[in-house]
Amino acid sequence: MEYNCTLIFYGVVALVILGYLWVKKNYRFFEKRGIPFVTPKFPLGNLWGVGTKRHAGMLVLEAYSKLKGRDILGGVFFFIRPVVMPVDLDLIKHILVKDFQYFHDRGVYVNERDDPLTAHLFAISGQKWKHLRAKLSPTFTSGKMKMMHSTIIAVAQEFQQYLGECADNKEEVEIKDILGRFTTDVIGSCAFGVECNSLKDPHTEFRKMGKRVFEFKGFEILKVFFLTMFPNIGKILRMRAIKKEVSEFFMRLLRETTEYREKNNVKRNDFLSLLLQIKNTGKLEGDDVDLGKMSFNELAAQTFVFFVAGFETSSSTMTFALYELALHQDIQDKARKEVNRILEKYNSQYTYEACMEMKYIDQIIKETLRMHPIVPNLVRTLTKDYKIPDRDYVFKKGTFFSIPVFGIHRDADIYPEPNKFDPDRFTEENIKNRHQFSWLPFGDGPRNCVGMRFGMMQTRVGLATLLSKYRITPTSKTLIPMEYGATGPVLSPKGGMWLKIEKF
After folding, report:
1. What is the band of 10 on the pLDDT scale with cuts at 50, 70, 90?
2. How far apart are CA 106 and CA 445, in angstroms?
3. 202 burial class (0-12, 13-18, 19+ CB within 10 angstroms)?
4. Rounded to an integer, what distance in angstroms lies between the CA atom of residue 259 and that of residue 266?
5. pTM of the entire predicted model
6. How far is CA 201 from CA 162, 170, 182, in A?
7. 31 by DSSP, 3-state: which?
8. Gap between the Cα atoms of 26 and 21, Å rounded
9. What is the pLDDT of residue 348?
10. Of all residues in the chain, what percent carry a pLDDT higher than 90?
11. How many CB atoms lie within 10 A of CB 496?
């Protein structure tokens, strides 16, 4: 017995020593290659915000500021995993466009067998991604966006009515929750053809499940880490990235909705209708291009990601925009004048053409996404060995790259006075005078955000609807200066966003 205990003791000591040496070796990854790096803190590294009370986006900003000027790239660590951080815009252009064939994967966990909703366009890799992108791109053309516009406007009218009730009560409101309910209703209608009614009832199952997607607690946080670091083991263990209750809800809803539509030949101007055309015929109506048919699971995964990406990113963008407009009443007044001038031209109708004319609203959205990029870094993983242009650095297949969107957007050399909210940075002339890759909230290149047009349209309608009739002002609860919540994959204000709505 004593002998066995001794063996166990020495075995544990040996494992600890080997683990220590392995971690130490990984943490010397960049040092051995002569590449500048940010010194990691064991065991979190530099990019994990949980436990630090800071969002990962702030860590990206901090790392960028430490690496910029030392070389065209540097090194950081996600836990003990080395991550290359490019800080030169021309190198970023190579990664996202010129040398895209090396960087077309994101390295996100996908398990089609046990977790079919993970096999969506954002996460899927290789040739599967290429074929899926070819199928989905035609569903996001300007013509298809115009088709969905009327659906957004119908929800926006309910949104405007709800805002009137808030203004009548003369109470400060948590605007992020209201905007989340608005975008949930929009996406629910456009993606699923379902009236969610979360503006009327914030406790609907649709709203609850949408929020649940972005909630990570206890073991769920550890699981995200494990699946990021060891995806192959996760697949062997048949682990799910999407919470079971969320997956079951959306799969059931989609199955019931698609079966009803197909049985009753129901057609709507929404995303699901377009996907059903591809699923059943391999084509879109009025288009002879053969896209190839789509399975139900493929359809479900794309509809799911359209929903979760669309409602959270757009509601957060509008939240930050209204925060900045509340603090800058002159900019708010200018935006309101533009909206009302254009509405007068179009007989008070929020037509597609009217919304597309709201250039200053677009500038506000773009400046908001510069200051508060909802996705603060873009992750790519090498699909084959790659030599950095004009350097002797060679990285092997599987190496992670993190493009520091937040750092670029707050770089004073690119955007003077970067902490100042100034929509005039995004006039056509000023945009032309900057590097193409100095603004990356939607990514760029072949793997940019396929739903960018829809996101901009939804955000434009939401802001215009609000500003045409209401004034937004800060309250004693408003976070000044801004603080970001520490958890969650996207950037959001800490504790919500409290503002006051007044009739104009």
Report:
1. low
2. 13
3. middle
4. 10
5. 0.93
6. 11, 20, 11
7. helix
8. 9
9. 93
10. 68
11. 17
